Amino acid sequence: MLGWVITCHDDRAQELQDRLEEKHGPLAQCRAVNFWRGLSTNMLSRMMCEALHQADSGDGVIFLTDTSGAAPYRVASLMSHKHSGCEVIAGVTYSLLEEMLAARESMSSAAFRDTIVSLGAPDVTSLWHQQQKNPPFVLKHDLYAY
Questions:
Q1: Pick from 8, 104, 9, 19: which is nearest to 64 by CA?
Q2: What digits encode the pLDDT tens for the residues 11-41?
Q3: Which end of the chain is more exposed for a tag (fewer CB within 10 A), N or C?
Q4: Which domains does the chain have, with CATH numbers?
Q5: Which member of 9, 53, 81, 129 is catalytic?
Q6: Which residues form a coiled coil (predicted)?
């Protein structure tokens, strides 16, 4: 099963998890990390790292964030490069998470990413989709072998 780390500004992450659990019961491998005003990105990174390890069973983890480019998204993006099977999604809503809840058990992290982005378009994106728009920078002299 894919783990979920829901990370949003203020108490929105915990609110999303609480609403889902109120309707669907306790969610295994799901952690909420709230990013409060004044919290350092170092502390956010520590909290998200702990949540990642608690949510991961080896099948992958999906970071579900509220805003593309904001601190939770940036920290999740850095962490995803160090852990295989991690995806970073931005723009999540309660209804979208509820719709994707059952998919955690049967989809790969890449298939989950593509599905949630297509269902939530144009407001939902992923780190992978953003990277496809902006391929890595390559220096011209690196293209030529001497």
A1: 8
A2: 999 999 999 999 999 999 999 999 999 999 9
A3: C
A4: 1-131 (3.40.50.510)
A5: 9
A6: none
